Amino acid sequence: MSKQLHKNFTDGQVKLILKSYLDKKIKISYILQMLRIKRSRFFELLAKYHKDPDNFSIRYERRTINRKIDPDIERNIVKELKIEKDLIKAKEVPIKYYNYSYIKDLLEQLILSNFLKLILPSFLLPRPPAESFLC
Fold first, then answer.
1. Nearest CA to 36 among 58, 64, 63?
2. How many domains in the chain?
3. Residue 42 falls within a domain, yes or no?
4. Mean pLDDT, consecutive 10-residue segments, the chain of 135 residues?
5. How many whole angstroms separate alpha carbon 47 and alpha carbon 36?
6. Cα–Cα distances in Å, from 73 out to 67, 68, 69, 77, 123?
7. Does residue 95 belong to any structural domain of this protein?
8. pTM of the model
9. Distance of CA 8 to the CA centre of its chain
10. Are residues 46 and 77 in the same domain?
11. In terms of residue numbers, what domain contains 38?
């Protein structure tokens, strides 16, 4: 048997069980065992049934698509893969296969150059003459 309630029981079956519970014909322990749900889920269903018994349904409707990633993320992944493919195909790059160390070196160079761009302006600030440090 499946774990999902909507795959194991129809709406009518669950309605009948909930109605029987409300009429005190069935004990909750038996219902929990039969439906294979916990108490909290049972009381969620019962509250939903109380709100609108005629339109009560256990059908599961997905709100979002779970098998797709965000288009921006997908574009970024494709862009990065193209860069890596170009690295592998480039004649001036000494690699035949996917080379993690070469890409690591490129990233280190990029990080180092960005770091130098950040700290270089502080080195270029005007400094007092060396004699001013002497007492």
1. 58
2. 2
3. yes
4. 78 92 92 92 92 88 75 84 80 64 72 61 50 46
5. 18
6. 14, 10, 7, 6, 38
7. yes
8. 0.47
9. 28
10. no
11. 5-51
